[in-house]
Amino acid sequence: MPLIGVPVASAAPAVGLRSRPIIRCGGMVAAPVQEAALIRRAAEVADLSAGHSSPHPNFGCVIARGGDVVGEGFLYAQGTKCAELQAVEMAGGLARGATAYLNMEPGDCCSDQTAVSSLVQAGISRVVMGLRHPLQHLRGKAIQSLRSEGVQVDILGEDLQSKTFEDALKSCLIVNAPLLYRAAFRVPFSVLKYAMTLDGKIATRFGHASWISSKVSRGRVFELRGRSDAVVVGGSTVRRDDPQLTARHGGAHVPVRIVMSQTLDLPEEAKLWDVFEAYTIVVTQRGARKDVQKKLAKKGVEVVEFDILSPRDVMEYCHDRGYLSVLWECGGSLAAPAISSGVIHKVYAFVAPKIIGGVNAPSPVGELGMVQMSQALNLIDVTYEQVGPDMLVSGFLQPIPDLSPTIPSSDEISALDPTVSPFDTKIISFYKTWERYGSFSNYSPHPIQMPDENGNYMTWSTVEHYYQAHKFVGVDNPLAKDAFEQIKTAKSPEEASQKGRRLQREHPELVRADWESAKIDVMYRALRCKFSTYPHLNAMLCSTAGSVLVEASPHDLFWGGGREGEGLNYLGRLLMQLRTEILEKSSKTSVVS
After folding, report:
1. Euclidean distance between CA atoms 361 and 65, whole angstroms
2. Distances in Å between the alpha carbon of 203 and those of 288, 359, 365?
3. Considering Cα of 316, then 318, then 323, then 324, what sign does the dihedral take?
4. Where is the CMP/dCMP-type deaminase domain (predicted)?
5. Does the global pTM surpass 0.85?
């Protein structure tokens, strides 16, 4: 991919990058203290993406010459331009001979070498990384690629081990805590959030709880939701508060709402049963109130049964659905077993300067079975922050997992056995772009060029952008043309998908009349273009010969396979059809030659 070689003064800022002061350290080579500051800055920049799209690994890149920052960038969302490419575009010619500081080893999309090639082609001479990638199938690959190109790579804790870098390393751990917890424990990173009065109450003894915390604090809660894949509450919260649990933060991402209810003693009408703006899942005990399950299903609410309903089983289920981060906004009766089962990793407690008293007023955490103060759970890395009139106390219940002991040493060229094929499984699932087969997703960051109605070629950021926009092609209505442009210019594929689905639902008159019969052909044309444009994707697809491809979307039962194989899996089918087409063409070509 060609790089934009322009002076830094005239370079456009990276997509979505908020205005931040440039660090000026001076000198030709950054001192250790300066380098630690630059790594921390890379972590700060990486965190700017949180809440814009479905949670994903956070990548930030800062390019500096002698300590002076000349370019930076961050991964805005799945399927968007990588942080490294944004940073070198911003730096232009000043990137040659400079040092790139990354909070984590790149590897957002399988077989996508853009991050590495961007740094190499820009002439970056050295890369400093905070962490190796925690996912086994990506760990060490980018490091090996950079070193094979003659780029010096230094990793905190391995090549840079002084105490100077301890805080910088912690910053890198914190910004990707969700991915680290998922890799280490096979459950999503879970945060328990609650607001309480100065005397430790979350409601009056009559159950009234609106509002304990200030409007400023509630704004922070919306931000926390925007950073999460899902928000969990119990049935009592639904009955008492009738919450909406949407982010309402102005970003594109809206988390899934999960209600845990063993008995399904739930109201017939509730804001959570409105699934047009946010998806809702009710998890319950197997066999519980089938009549209520049917009513919820008719409203579009997904009901999932467990043999034994427990917080750990629910979190393992969320892990299987690809969730990275979950926010618990439940009452004390659910918070206690969640903590006891070890699935709560961090706590956010908003303490309001109010006193309401009440012997029977509920507290944020129910019975944990502790009888002595020495049994109390101590938070780690506690921080205190004033938020409006409230005090926010946060800290970790479990230390952020340090995966470095299991990471190959820096002189090992690869941790993989080259004799073992990664494509030996008979069923290959794909969903998130950062997973092993993420390149097969419509959200993967592979732009395509497709002809319009007049034969003029247009560039589309992703296959998802192209597909969603073509719902409104050929409709003689200015609003349809506006919908087309809104989707085409969406900042991420998730935003394009949300806009396309919402407009289709709210304005069916704008959707082309033949869409139901044409949509498969539209998708296939886009897929054929994508896999013919990128040779490494073509090779990966062909390498899966003999395997069944399944798009593991739990929501989309047309394009995806569903959570229990009940989906039609048309995206997987089209990819297998395309694979056959490519292999047959290749076979004919080899015979002729």
Report:
1. 59
2. 29, 12, 12
3. negative
4. 33-154
5. no
Q: What is the DSSP letter of 94?
A: G
- From the number of C-beta atoms within 10 Å of its C-beta (0-12, 13-18, 19+), residue 219 rates as middle
The burial of 414, by beta-carbon neighbours within 10 Å (0-12 exposed, 13-18 middle, 19 or more buried), is given as exposed
pLDDT at residue number 90: 95
pLDDT in tens, 390-440: 999 999 998 887 655 333 333 332 332 233 233 334 788 888 887 888 899
pLDDT tens digits, one per residue of 297-324: 999 999 999 999 999 999 999 998 889 9
Q: Out of 84, 329, 435, 464, which one is annotated catalytic?
A: 84
Handedness of CA 36, 40, 41, 46 (dihedral sign): positive
Between 204 and 395, residue with greater pLDDT: 395
Residue 84 is among the residues annotated as catalytic for this protein: yes
Q: How much is the pLDDT for 564? A: 65
Confidence band of 510 (pLDDT split at 50, 70, 90)? very high
* pLDDT at 9 > cutoff 80: no
The kind and range of the H/E element at 183 are helix 177-185
Burial bucket for residue 83 (CB in 10 Å: 0-12, 13-18, 19+): buried
Helix 515-533 vs helix 535-543: crossing angle, to nearest 10: 110
The boundaries of every CATH 3.40.140.10 domain in the chain are: 8-175
For domain 8-175, the CATH class is alpha beta
What is the CATH class of 427-592? Answer: mainly alpha
β-pairing, 325-328 with 230-234?
parallel
Q: Looking at residue 372, what is its pLDDT?
A: 82
Give Cα separations from 391 to 200, 348, 388 (angstroms): 13, 10, 8
Length of the chain, in residues: 593
Q: What is the pLDDT of residue 305?
A: 94
Nearest residue to 52 (alpha-carbon basis) of 344, 490, 387, 466:
490
- What residues does CATH 3.40.430.10 cover in the chain? 181-367+377-396
Options 1.10.3720.10, 3.40.50.300, 3.30.70.2740, 3.40.430.10; which CATH number does 181-367+377-396 get?
Answer: 3.40.430.10
| Closest to 435 (Cα-Cα) out of 551, 543, 345 | 551
CA dist 94 to 4, 34, 38, 147, 199, Å?
A: 12, 19, 17, 21, 57
Amino acid identity, residue 392? L
CATH 1.10.357.40 residue ranges of the chain are: 427-592
